[in-house]
Design goal:
42% helix, 11% strand
């Protein structure tokens, strides 16, 4: 028998301050068996606090209003270690759900309906719970203590499961890792944060952001003037989806933004590339900054002038706060861990992922569910890190159907969750990919199809294939008045009519 299967009865500890457990006629109750949680783990007591469990239940009976706060923190009966406390909590939740007043009589009646009243110790034990606390003043502290203990027990259960799975001769390492990653993310996501705050606590950072703006730009500049004016720069906590069909230039546009933000504006940028290796990205960046055709850079047939351009471009690139991760086997948990490490070192202002559909997923029911979990994780990451996150994505083949002139939000491949989670959705378009006409060769367009905090617009740009780089549109490519053409989307009421103008703040 392994130490993970060792089951022992764990007696309840005595209360402090002179309280002792009454001697009921029912037999001694053992903790509910939950995976490795059998009282002892490797000879040591698992995390629990039976006093806190009793005090919380007693506080609810003494002051039923405590239940409203408790159900927001205690997500399930597993937050209680002792089985009879789990049963009492289940009964309390049923009363709360049915809008039934909570007191000793209604709780005992519900437990009797469940057939569990004698198992928890009868009405005497319920009365004793209420009498064990003088007031509900410390209920919040007891809830937080139970949450922490439950999280630790879940980690023990998860760790034991990982060990068992890893010991299986038929186990596939990738599957074991994916399961562990998914379970760890679920436990981390279950942590309760005090997120309810009065509105005045958000006004100070807003005013600081507005006062620190430069030329009306409050976020990170992309280097595309019209896009920066439309968005006021890339804003903190925004998830931006940059989508296109293969070969159109979404990676090139993402690299353009990364280079402009890091080299021109000295912003800390992390570029996670699941498709191209770091050397390829560095070559693109060097070609762009030096203004040298990539083909000439590859074959090494450079003129003396080009060599001088190359040498001049190396230093600003090398000194730029741009970090590249070319791990092709990247999952959302690993991404979040690396992002947190950079943020702790104050080395993360913008994060870019190329591209979303290549990220490693767990064992979700289908691909759409898996991609939806990733997009939600990226939005959570953007809010937690307080940075803009740009995630590249593929469009479905519907874009290539005859008669389709432009992509739509419904063309985002594999999951409608991507559209829902995104604060902005951009589509990169190049007519040359379809027409192969020389006059279309340098024309490009960024379609801002969704903008949660502002208006949507089509932004004309110039694309130089030799450098794989996007620039502001040349004057001859601009529409009347110098602006890109506008296109009104049906946004379902999500985007509103435009962001407020703080230029005169």
């Amino acid at each position: 028998m392994s130490e993970f299967d060792n089951e022992q009865n764990f007696p309840e500890p005595e209360f402090d301050q002179g309280y002792s457990e009454p001697n009921y006629s029912e037999p001694e109750y053992t903790p509910k068996k939950r995976g490795s949680d059998s009282g002892k783990f490797e000879g040591r007591q698992v995390p629990m606090d039976l006093d806190a469990e009793r005090c919380l239940l007693g506080s609810i009976l003494r002051d039923p209003e405590v239940m409203g706060e408790a159900i927001m923190i205690i997500k399930d009966e597993g937050y209680f270690y002792l089985e009879k406390h789990q049963l009492i909590w289940t009964a309390l939740c049923t009363l709360n759900r049915n809008v039934t007043p909570i007191d000793l009589v209604t709780l005992a009646s519900e437990l009797e309906t469940m057939g569990k009243l004698s198992l928890v110790g009868g009405r005497e034990y319920l009365f004793d719970l209420m009498e064990s606390v003088a007031s509900s003043a410390n209920a919040s502290w007891h809830m937080e203590l139970l949450r922490k203990k439950a999280s630790l027990r879940k980690l023990i259960d998860m760790s034991s499961s990982i060990i068992r799975n890893a010991m299986d001769p038929a186990a596939a390492p990738d599957e074991v890792l994916q399961d562990a990653e998914r379970d760890m993310f679920a436990i981390a996501d279950d942590q309760v944060r005090d997120s309810l705050k009065p509105i005045n606590q958000f006004m100070t950072p807003l005013l600081e952001r507005l006062n620190n703006r430069k030329d009306g730009i409050t976020g990170i500049r992309t280097g595309i003037t019209e896009l920066d004016e439309l968005t006021n720069g890339l804003q903190k906590s925004d998830l931006i989806i940059l989508a296109a069909r293969p070969g159109v230039g979404k990676t090139s546009f993402a690299m353009t933004i990364a280079a402009n933000a890091a080299i021109k504006f000295n912003q800390n940028v992390a570029f996670f590339s699941l498709e191209m290796d770091g050397v390829q990205l560095a070559q693109r960046l060097l070609s762009s900054q030096a203004g040298i055709d990539q083909s000439r850079l590859r074959n090494g047939h450079l003129t003396n002038d080009e060599k001088r351009q190359l040498i001049a471009a190396v230093t600003p690139i090398s000194q730029a706060p741009l970090y590249v991760d070319d791990n092709a086997d990247l999952g959302i948990m690993e991404l979040m861990s690396k992002a947190r490490q950079l943020k702790r070192k104050n080395k993360l202002d913008l994060l870019i992922i190329d591209y979303l559909q290549l990220m490693k997923t767990g064992k979700e029911e289908n691909r759409a569910v898996a991609i939806g979990a990733i997009s939600r994780g990226l939005k959570i990451l953007a809010k937690e890190m307080q940075i803009p996150v740009i995630a590249l994505a593929q469009l479905s083949r519907k874009v290539e159907e005859k008669g389709r002139e432009r992509p739509q939000l419904s063309d985002l491949r594999e999951s409608g969750s991507i559209e829902q989670d995104a604060d902005m959705v951009w589509f990169v378009e190049r007519k040359f990919v379809q027409t192969h006409k020389e006059e279309d060769r340098n024309q490009a367009e960024l379609i801002v199809a969704k903008h949660r905090n502002g208006s949507v617009k089509d932004i004309r740009m110039t694309f130089i294939p030799e450098y794989t780089t996007f620039y502001d549109a040349a004057p001859d490519d601009m529409g009347e008045g110098g602006d890109g053409g506008a296109y009104v989307y049906d946004d379902g009421g999500d985007m509103g009519g435009g962001a407020p103008d703080f230029a005169d703040f």
